[in-house]
Amino acid sequence: MASKKGNGHWGNPIQTGSAFDFRSDVITTPSLGMLEAIQQATLNDDVYGEDQTTRSFENQIAAMCGKEAAVLVVSGTMANQLSIRALLHQPPYSILADSQAHIIHFEAGGLAHLSGAMVQAIRPMNGLYITLADIEKHAILSDQPERCPTKTISIENTAHGNIIPLNELHKIKYWAAKHGIGVHIDGARLWHAVVAGAGTLEQFASYCDALTLSFNKALGAPMGAMVVGSQDLIKRVRRLRQSIGGGVRQTGIMAAMARQAVLDNFGAKQVDSRGELEKTHDMAKMLGRAWTDAGGRLLRPVETNMVWLDMKSAGISIEAFNEMGKRHGILVNGKRIMVHHQICEAANQKLTRMFDELLTPIQATVSGIVLNSALSKNKSAIVIASTLGSLVRRKRRLFNAREFKISFFRATDKACEISYTGCANKTGASGRAYQGTGRARVMDMRCWGRVK
Ligand SMILES: Cc1ncc(COP(=O)(O)O)c(C=O)c1O
């Protein structure tokens, strides 16, 4: 089941596997309602501008956002790239964005070849999202010939699950307008900010010149995104879309599914009226608490549907974590846990159990072994125990072992050498016994003074 992908049945997340998949919200599968919506869609040509389903959906989204116009495109990436390109006019120009932004890392370098722009990737000072203080510090306003002026600021909201509040966006937009700089919001998951009560779509849209919205994230459509802005901007986007082959003919099919996704999981107005996404926030918060209750640390506060686990402090690699997920019957992809509307309760329970197993220390076994062993006189048993403890914990994660026996060790000032044998625990897939030799460094020398 969960660890392999299912057969892809319409409308059944258990069968498609998305109910157990925490890797992203893009893996959600279309509903039966979307299939029915296709059957009602008009099938006219959108490049000729003749498809009624598409046009009425574009008008609906523009109205929800309080903007003049909107244009449907196939993906969020296309929406972002076209928005930014349309905001830029005469090079040289640069785009200022969060150093972790999707437009920088996951859009195949489109900013370089589609916009020919320099990118100013900045690390937000507050560790969460871009603020005006970051922009004022880094934007290039100079018209000196050797400089490349900032002409667009691109902001992701939500930013990795965290919400950039309206008052910050207001300040940014005001400042940008004063300096003739365009503002783009990558609102792939703006739905979540609205659901969290941070503002309406219209309020968020009022603080940018181009807004992109995705229907295949959060809402569950299989494809489709929208660029929303002024008439003039959308006219430019339509031409640019055509120039990169993004003019699709019978888009009514795509528009019908996307519109159904909005209706099903958000509602027809500017504010969430369905409560579907709110449930994902509750689940994410519950999972965040489960992780911290088990002793883990979070990299970001949980505000919407994402939980960011501090894997380093938990001492586990991404690969081992992902493997462990498969053994528990769920799919995860490292430190970002993404909750979506198709995740089921059983998947939450599996993940919570996995957190417990991962973070619960097995000190008792270790100290028993240490006390039974012949320690060299000048070493503290407790330090050795804790060193061995962390080593064994790491090994246990690697092998998913409960029983771990240390048969030999030699301790020096800097290292602790052991040989060990163990066997996979009851949830382990292989059940095989294993053995080997490990070295653990004594990490915190200050401990020596404290525990003696
Ligand atoms: C913040 C953000 N923007 C844009 C995109 C691109 O969307 P798409 O996969 O539809 O191209 C993604 C994809 O995950 C995203 O996370």
UniProtKB/TrEMBL annotation:
Give start and end of each Aromatic amino acid beta-eliminating lyase/threonine aldolase domain.
21-312
Q: Which InterPro entries match?
A: ArAA_b-elim_lyase/Thr_aldolase, PyrdxlP-dep_Trfase, PyrdxlP-dep_Trfase_major, PyrdxlP-dep_Trfase_small
The uppermost taxa in this organism's lineage are: Eukaryota, Fungi, Dikarya, Ascomycota, Pezizomycotina
Source organism of this protein record: Pseudomassariella vexata
What does the sequence similarity comment in the record state about its family? Belongs to the threonine aldolase family.
**From what superkingdom does this record's organism come?**
Eukaryota
The name this protein carries in UniProt is: Beta-eliminating lyase
Output one GO MF annotation: L-allo-threonine aldolase activity
A cellular component term (GO) from this record?
A: cytosol
